[in-house]
Amino acid sequence: MAGPQAFRAGAxxxxxxxxxxxxxxxxxxILVRPYLGPETSRLLELPLMIGISYAASSLVVRRLGVxxxxxxxxxxxxxFLLLIAAELVLxxxxxxxxxxxxxxxxxxxxxxxxxxxQALLIVMPLQAARRTGHxxxxxxxxxxx
Length: 145
Fold this sequence. Notes:
The protein has helices spanning 3-36, 38-64, 69-95, 99-106, 109-119, 124-132. It is mainly α.
């Protein structure tokens, strides 16, 4: 898989996870946070976002087919970096929260766990590819008996 194709796949994975996270975050802020508070509501969202990240990774894997382990990790890393960049930009544009606010947030338990959940996106495409047999291990899959 060439560099531009890996970037497009990472961007697709980012877009899927970001859109789902944005929608889930809005629901969390409007419906859950007023009753459970900011920390608990974020912690409740984490397993859902991890599941969404895996589902999105599986979708990207099925769309692309077989690739090497390294390519799947590149795709996950691209998606993760785009996700962090989008979070920083949106934090600044929508909420006037800059880099220092982001760093202060990741020093809290919910913030650190959120960052860890986002970082799992790096390995999710590889895990999804392994589960479905979409990892090129270097051996021919169509060899004759």
